[in-house]
Amino acid sequence: MPHLIDDAEALLHEHGFKITGQRTLLLQVLAGQSTYLDAEEIYELAHAQDTSISLATVYRTLNLFADLGLVDHRYIEPEHRREVFRMSEGPEQHYLTCVRCGARVLIHANLLNRMAHELVRRKGVSVITACACFTGYCPDCTAELQQTGKLPTGNSLPG
Question: CATH 3.30.1490.190 residue ranges in the chain?
Answer without folding.
Answer: 91-152
